[in-house]
Amino acid sequence: MSRVYLDNNATTPVLPEVLEAMRPYFGDHFGNASSIHHHGQETRAAVECARESVAALVGCRASELVFTSGGTEADNLAIFGLARPGDHVITSTVEHHAVLNACKHLASKGCDVTYISVDGRGRLDPADVRRAIRPHTKLITIMLANNETGVVEPAAEIGKIAAQADIYFHTDAVQAAGKIPIDVNQIECDLLTISGHKLHGPQGVGALYVRKGTQIEPMLYGGSHERSRRAGTENVPGIVGLGKAAELARAGLERGDDLKMATERDRLERELLEIEATGLNGEGAPRLPNTTNIYFDGIEGEALVIALDLKGLAVSTGAACSSGAIEPSHVLTAMGLRPDRAKASIRFSLGKQNTPEDVDFALGLIPETVARLRELSPVWAGAGVVSRKLAT
Ligand SMILES: *Cc1c(COP(=O)(O)O)cnc(C)c1O
After folding, report:
1. CA distance 24 to 35
2. Which of 23, 147, 197, 243 is the most exposed place for a label (fewest CB within 10 A)?
3. CA 145 to CA 155: how far, in whole Å?
């Protein structure tokens, strides 16, 4: 059976060049990057070369990057590295769970946390961030782009507000990295998270940008790796893979790969919205070029994901971690979607490997599958009926 993967916001396939770059570091180049002999120097050089590539992708100095085990650890390191009991932290209602649950934990340890809400398009208002600032506000953590909807938040405006108020600003740029240009100085952030596997690098590696002069408390204690900001022998193959992925992502952005991707995403979106009783989540907001999130009234999103998977198309209901749960997405409900509509929403996310034929494949399957599920649906009796019944 042919299979098409349109769930690249959950994870992306490792590009062949990335795999090739990593391969020697599973073999002959096995040294501990802290060893002073030849083997250590070899892997140390590779780690530092990867650091330069990642720095170039986000516009920082190599020395300002800390390699971690992924986006989750980088988000946690930013948050727990700065916030202390008694501090106030500002975040948003649409963050990834790596940020939301870290903030929840902070609250249980005596921090005050303010959650800024978003409008119907999924955008937050920087003025709300400004108004939320209190004398003891230590950190603002707000994502650059949302993993479920692709909506891009006004990070640079928030960065300006944070800088004026002399408050640390962290942004989770895991989904934005490689899809839109990123410059830490333009955003004016002090900390920024990226993850290898969301940009065609390997799983289990990420990086946190920490602006020069920003003191963060480590989460792991041990050796003096990563300038004593993250103890533990470096994941050399992973770091090399992340470096290669960052280099390819930057070259892709310079070539305009993002525009090509947006063309295919737009075609997919346009044709899916032709299906009756559908709508776009995040309509009218600036969005990543690869993501579209659409509701199909009268169906269960999970049922559609499973039905499409049986035919070889991989898509998602949104946050990968919430799959299996029946809870509607916290992102979509924060945008004001009715629970049934949030549960009827599907995320389609493209990657570098996708072709126009992949979009054709998806378009060949989805309309008939939606129609069949609606025939079986107890709440579906035609678009007009369902909207009358559910809108009241
Ligand atoms: C995937 C993701 C993370 C977590 O990254 P991991 O490397 O999987 O731990 C954090 N934030 C966002 C926005 C993500 O999409």
Report:
1. 18
2. 23
3. 9
| Contact (CB, 8 A) for 100 and 79 | no
Taking the domains of the chain in order of start, what are their residue ranges? 4-12+256-382, 16-253
Cβ atoms 318, 332 nearer than 8 A: yes
Q: Is the pLDDT of residue 54 over 60?
A: yes
The model's pTM is 0.96
Burial of 75 (0-12, 13-18, 19+ CB in 10 A): buried
- Residue whose structure tokens are 């060949």: 364
Token digits of residue 325: 């749960």
Strand partners, 193: 172, 208
CA 124 to CA 305: how far, in whole Å?
Answer: 29
pLDDT band (50, 70, 90) for residue 326: low
Cα angle at 216 between 214 and 220, to 5 degrees? 150
- Return the CATH number of the domain spanning residue range 16-253: 3.40.640.10
Ligand 1: centre distance to CA 305 (Å)? 21
Distance 232 CA to ligand 1 centre (A): 21
The H-assigned helical ranges of 109-235 are 126-132, 155-165, 184-187, 225-228
Pairing type for strands 112-116 and 88-92 reads parallel
Confidence (pLDDT) at 318 = 72
Question: Is the beta carbon of 202 within 6 A of some atom in ligand 1?
Answer: no
For residue 369, the Cα-to-chain-centroid distance in whole angstroms is 28
Q: Which of 7, 73, 96 to mutate to test the pocket of ligand 1 (most atoms within 8 A of CB)?
A: 96
DSSP label at 283?
Answer: T
**Structure token pair of residue 198:** 């969301």
| Element counts in the chain: helices (H) and strands (E) | 15, 12
For 4-12+256-382, give the CATH class. alpha beta
321 catalytic per annotation: yes
**Spatial distance between the Cα atoms of 186 and 155, rounded to a whole number of angstroms:** 9
Average pLDDT score over residue span 343-363: 98
What atom of ligand 1 comes closest to residue 9's alpha carbon? 15
